[in-house]
Design a protein that fits this description.
Elements: H1 2-17, H2 22-38, H3 44-58, H4 60-66, H5 69-79, E1 89-93, E2 96-99, H6 100-126, H7 129-138, H8 144-171, H9 179-207, H10 226-242
Helix pairs in contact: 2-3, 2-6, 2-10, 3-4, 3-6, 4-6, 5-6, 6-8, 7-8, 8-9
């Protein structure tokens, strides 16, 4: 058992060497957003594939969560209105007309939304509230880092709370009858849970005598791959942006 534990600890240490630190996670987050907003449209699909490949390699859980039916349904609903933009008609669906410009706009919106959701989920899962506060405090924005860190780190908690509340109501037959009342209970439960969690974080910060004016930058995790990651991200972004 001792040998097995030592082997597992050594394996985790080796894996940790290839994981980005706090600055590396921020670089990946900004790089993913810049790829899908700065890259010209003819090469947008290449930028999206690069961002999703980075998410698969470094944050596989984030992309795996996006493949759940509810997220796929949300992404699909977000891209449907773009299908009927004015332009060259392809197919008539009753009073609506599917256009070539609409199809192009729909897949662009779908790709951008997927990359943004994967980047946000991966960043919030890998960077803690204290590390995010440290980033902002080092930039001179005291207090904003703590508030932003709490808001972003509440997203996974809010997502889990929504899933648990939904399944609890559904298993108890809450949506078979009085669906409007069940939906109201669902929304009230989710909002109350989020407010309670935020209040717990604020009370914990107050108990530790946290103050935005007197706060100091907490130490950040440093990854061995962060400098190489920065060079690779800048090089790929410039290549896609300036490629003739």
């Amino acid at each position: 058992m001792i040998g097995l534990r030592q082997w597992q600890a050594t394996t985790d240490m080796k894996k940790g060497r290839w994981q980005p630190g706090t600055v590396g996670s921020l670089i990946l987050f900004v790089w993913s957003l810049a790829l899908v907003f700065v890259t010209p449209l003819p090469r947008l699909w290449i930028a999206g594939l690069l961002a999703l490949l980075a998410a698969v390699l470094l944050y596989p859980q984030s992309l795996r969560r996006l493949l759940q039916p509810r997220w796929l349904l949300l992404l699909g609903l977000m891209s449907v209105p773009s299908l009927f933009l004015p332009g060259r008609p392809l197919l008539a669906l009753g009073p609506l007309t599917l256009t070539a410009e609409g199809v192009q706009g729909a897949w662009q919106m779908l790709l951008r939304a997927t990359v943004i959701l994967a980047a946000v989920d991966g960043f919030t899962a890998s960077v803690s509230v204290s590390e995010m506060a440290g980033l902002f405090e080092r930039a001179g924005l005291r207090g904003l880092g703590f508030a932003t860190g709490v808001a972003l780190n509440l997203l996974p908690i809010l997502r889990d709370s929504i899933a648990i509340t939904w399944h609890s109501l559904r298993m108890r037959g809450g949506f078979r009858r009085h669906r409007l009342r069940a939906t109201r209970y669902f929304l009230v439960t989710v909002v109350a849970g989020a407010v309670q969690r935020a209040e717990e974080i604020a009370l914990a910060a107050e108990a530790r005598a946290y103050s935005p004016d007197g706060g100091r930058a907490s130490p950040l995790r440093h990854g061995a791959v962060d400098p190489y990651l920065l060079l690779a991200c800048v090089a790929l972004l410039l290549a896609l942006r300036l490629w003739p």
